[in-house]
Amino acid sequence: MATPTPNDRMLKALAAAYVEKPRATLKQLADAAGTSTATLHRLCGTREALVKMLESQGLSALNQVIADAELTKAEPLEALRRMIVGHLAQRELLLFMMFQYRPDSNDPGNECSRWASYTDALDTFFLRGQHEGLFRIDISAQMLTELFSAMLYGVVDAERCGRAASATSAIVFEKFFLHGGSAQKV
User: Fold this and answer.
1) Among 62, 110, 142, 159, whose Cα sits 20 to 30 Å from the Cα of 118?
2) pLDDT, tens digit, for every residue of 52-67?
3) What fold does the segment set 8-179 form as a domain?
4) What keywords appear on the UniProt entry (predicted)?
């Protein structure tokens, strides 16, 4: 019998289940994701293999978001909008990736340095946006990347906790990222 191929919906459900109950058994994770324990065992075999599979899928999804946003070609505001919508479409995997993030993830030589191409693409995009006048220049492109990432995690986690409505997240995120939380221009 062939190993089942996971679909996007199942992987997102597994990622969400893992974040909600990180100590859950494979059976509990399978139940939460709406699949059978046998399917999950055939798919990954162990929790460690599941985590690696979800990390790989998450990184692949984030890199696809970057590619789809056309950060190097599209007008910066349009690319930012595409990037926000694309990330939010991957909210379950994004939350899982942030849940798995470790401070040494970008250290050269570390197996987690696989984030480097993602953060480099964001850094380059924000620098281009600064040169084209969309983003402020008194904050480094690297800091804009970190703020963007942290805000994404915050929005997705707020949705997960019922503190934010996913229907308006993209609009709120864009407004806050571009204009801050001030009621008036400062």
Assistant:
1) 159
2) 999 999 999 999 999 9
3) Tetracycline Repressor; domain 2 (1.10.357)
4) DNA-binding, Transcription, Transcription regulation
Predicted pLDDT at 8: 85
Sorted by where each begins, the domain ranges of the chain are 8-179
Q: What is the pLDDT at residue 4?
A: 44
Q: pTM score, two decimals? A: 0.85
Least confident window among 94-98, 161-165, 179-183: 179-183
